[in-house]
Design brief:
This is ATP-binding cassette domain-containing protein. The strands form 2 sheets. A 6-stranded mixed β-sheet has the order 6-7-8-3-9-10, sandwiched between helices. A 4-stranded antiparallel β-sheet has the order 2-1-4-5. It is an alpha/beta fold. A hairpin with a 2-residue loop joins β9 and β10. The longest helix has 16 residues. It is 33% helix and 28% strand. α3 crosses α4. The structure holds adenosine-5'-diphosphate (2 copies). One adenosine-5'-diphosphate binds next to α5.
Length: 232
């Protein structure tokens, strides 16, 4: 089953005048696929991510996520879908400021109704994986930018979602941290999570299997990326 499919999607915003942010977008994202989205500022990349992440509804057309057509769902059904099937890595991280790293990572598992001790175990193991095993009790404000980004990634992976959405995940971190983040995404993809990554950096986009180029709300082209096997 396709993880996300968009069919003839149009998205308009009405703020005095009408802005058409996406127009006639038809795309399929298969299980385990890795797609990057590139395009100039204002081309509709964030709008696309908000639609596939069930954060917003299209003006026209279908957005089907994990077999559910987003426009037909209630707000609470969309919240449940997001909590269990989709992992978000957005630039602002959206970590809860009063929760520790461990509690932030465990949050999606609360939605998924995991029992407390299993939530704790899973959150600790994920924080270990991202190199923050010694920071589990830190609040976000006690962590560096790169560390917060890694907490956000651990949280996105917590419920083993069908789909991981990443908006400029390496945007605010140094090169080394950025490479670590890209490795974590690759590991997740190897385990079968589909990934959609928005970036303006070609070098980052080339980690994906294909690059979707968007201009003025229209898909201009889809470029396949040949992945070479790294030297052992
Ligand atoms: P990108 O992520 O590629 O920079 P966006 O999806 O954010 O592009 O924006 C696409 C277009 O939609 C832009 O013209 C932008 O100004 C407009 N837009 C985006 N979000 C809103 C909003 N909430 N209200 C009104 N216009 C918006
Ligand atoms: P990163 O490359 O991960 O963003 P930084 O250079 O920002 O790392 O931070 C280096 C170290 O300083 C980190 O290991 C972190 O523990 C510590 N640090 C950074 N910012 C803060 C902060 N606001 N409060 C406490 N420790 C911090």
């Amino acid at each position: 089953e396709t993880v996300v499919s968009l069919d003839g999607v149009r998205k308009e915003y009405d703020l005095g005048g009408t802005v058409t942010a996406l127009d006639g977008v038809t795309l399929d994202f298969e299980p385990g696929s890795y797609s990057a989205v590139m395009g100039p500022s204002g081309s509709g990349k964030s709008t696309l991510l908000n639609l596939v992440g069930a954060l917003d509804t299209p003006t026209d057309g279908d957005v089907v996520v994990a077999g559910r057509n987003i426009p037909t769902l209630s707000e609470s059904e969309r919240v449940a879908l997001r909590g269990t099937r989709i992992g978000f890595i957005f630039q602002t991280f959206n970590l809860m400021p009063r929760l520790t790293a461990e509690e932030n990572v465990a949050l999606p598992l609360l939605f998924a109704e995991w029992e407390r001790s299993r939530r704790r175990e899973r959150a600790r193991s994920l924080l270990d994986d991202v190199g923050l095993g010694d920071r589990i009790d830190h609040l976000p404000q006690e962590l560096s930018g790169g560390q917060r980004q890694r907490v956000a990634i651990a949280r996105a992976l917590a419920s083993d979602p069908d789909l991981i959405l990443a908006d400029e995940p390496t945007g605010n971190v140094d090169t080394e941290t950025g490479e670590g983040i890209m490795r974590l995404l690759e590991d997740a993809n190897d385990r079968g999570n589909a990934i959609i990554l928005v970036t303006h950096e070609r070098r980052i986009a080339e980690h994906a299997d294909r690059i979707i180029h968007i201009t003025d709300g229209v898909v201009e082209g889809i470029e396949s990326i040949e992945q070479t096997t790294p030297e052992p």
